[in-house]
Q: What sequence folds into this?
């Protein structure tokens, strides 16, 4: 048998040799360079100017003004420094100074592309300065004008690009400075560490400001969305409440129809057989409609109402119950004056309920937000007898007081608007010059049908 000798890397119990480790390091380095190239080559929102979303016109122009000021001031200064202080050739000086300063105007809309141009021009300038005699005793590889322009570019870059891109730019700046140590001219003053530190500080400050602005903008957007959702939810809740109340009103009248149709043959003598059958059909149809309505609209009622007896069939309150409502408000500490029409007013159930609820909501708002304020409630009929005006006016509180509720859901005004819209009315609300508040609702006056004789709620509950 012939044996095969194992290399140290293949012997059992031995770790990997130096070759696999070197490969892993090279692979990690290539991966890092690939990520660096992707970050440096992928700008964020190219073409969008800095502060472009700001509403103030002067703030939108501010980046252009700042970039123009830096470009105009640094261009002649850079030419003078490179030509007179460092002794660089005039033609090369003009080309490099232009490449180092003019792209600052591009930084307003495309800061990452401007960085590529300016950084390349700075590196070429540093290489060109190694061949001139004026570099001895002066800043290298980055002259003072280069540092100023580069820091201005870092500010524009940090206000636009994401954090990984900023880190890539900063590391590239540091690597260029480290590599420059190998060709540093004798007698020059190294400035790469200074630029590396200052650029990092500028990038961090700009990124912090940008992220703070983004966070505030998102917070405002969320507050706007939350406010819209809150208003929508309030509106839906108020519509549900109105639907429940209308369900009670309709259920009451359907119960009245059923009772009248069922009892007509017993209350009226001499009715033909065909009429009895017609009354029976009316009663059956009304009873079926009532059951169907209860099935469809019963879900709008709260669990507590369902638990304690199911849907109510008694009529909802109307303007006849306003004196009792005002009496309770007076006991709560709010002086209220009530004025009702001299002659009885015949209202449809929906209008009657809407008038009562509008007064109820208005008085509740007075109790919550202006406790102790004198309030006047007036119900006025129009001369032509077609409109009813519900007017609630309260003055300012007699003494400064803390409202019982500083924040609310806004159900009061929302509910009033929905109710007047339901009955084809109009609503006018607003503050008064003396510090009070006014609510004026204009509701249509239309008497209910007179064909149905009134029945008590007790009778209707028997259905």
A:
């Amino acid at each position: 048998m012939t044996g095969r000798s194992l290399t140290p890397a293949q012997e059992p119990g031995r770790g990997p040799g130096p070759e696999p480790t070197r490969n892993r390091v090279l692979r990690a380095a290539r991966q890092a360079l690939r990520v660096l190239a992707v970050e440096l080559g992928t700008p964020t929102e190219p073409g969008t100017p800095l502060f472009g979303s700001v509403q103030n016109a002067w703030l939108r122009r501010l980046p252009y003004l700042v970039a123009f000021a830096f470009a105009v001031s640094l261009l002649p200064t850079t030419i003078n420094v490179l030509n007179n202080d460092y002794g660089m050739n005039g033609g090369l000086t003009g080309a490099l100074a232009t490449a180092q300063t003019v792209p600052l105007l591009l930084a307003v809309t495309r800061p990452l592309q401007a960085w590529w141009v300016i950084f390349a021009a700075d590196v070429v300038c540093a290489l060109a300065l190694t061949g001139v005699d004026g570099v001895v005793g002066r800043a290298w590889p980055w002259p003072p004008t280069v540092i100023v322009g580069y820091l201005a570019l870092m500010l524009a870059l940090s206000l636009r690009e994401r954090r990984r891109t900023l880190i890539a730019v900063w590391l590239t700046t540091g690597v260029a400075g480290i590599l420059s140590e190998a060709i540093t001219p004798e007698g020059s003053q190294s400035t790469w560490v200074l630029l590396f530190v200052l650029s990092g500080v500028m990038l961090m400050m700009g990124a912090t400001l940008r992220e703070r602005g983004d966070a505030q903008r998102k917070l405002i957007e969320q507050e706007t969305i939350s406010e819209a959702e809150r208003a929508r939810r309030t509106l839906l809740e108020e519509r549900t409440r109105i639907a429940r109340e209308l369900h009670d009103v309709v259920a009451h009248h359907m119960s009245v129809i059923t009772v009248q149709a069922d009892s007509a043959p017993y209350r009226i003598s001499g009715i033909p057989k065909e009429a009895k059958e017609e009354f029976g059909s009316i009663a059956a149809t009304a009873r079926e409609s009532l059951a169907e309505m209860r099935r469809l609209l019963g879900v709008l009622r709260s669990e507590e109402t369902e638990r304690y007896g199911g849907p109510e069939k008694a009529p909802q309150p109307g303007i006849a119950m306003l004196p009792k409502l005002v009496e309770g408000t007076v006991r709560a500490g709010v002086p209220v004056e009530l004025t009702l029409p001299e002659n009885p007013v015949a209202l449809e159930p929906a209008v009657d309920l809407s008038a009562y609820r509008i007064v109820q909501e208005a008085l509740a708002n007075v109790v919550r937000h202006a406790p102790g304020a004198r309030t006047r409630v007036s119900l006025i009929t129009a001369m032509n007898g077609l409109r009813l005006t519900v007017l609630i006016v309260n003055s300012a509180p007699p003494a400064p007081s803390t409202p019982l509720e500083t924040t609310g859901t806004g159900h009061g005004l929302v509910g009033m608007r929905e109710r007047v819209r339901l009955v084809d009315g109009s609503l006018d609300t607003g503050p008064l010059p003396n510090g009070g508040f006014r609510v004026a609702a204009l509701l249509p006056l239309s008497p209910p049908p007179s064909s149905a004789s009134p029945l008590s709620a007790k009778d209707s509950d028997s259905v």
Observations:
- Residues 236-312 form one domain.
- The first strand starts at residue 139 and ends at 140.
- The first helix runs from residue 18 to 40.
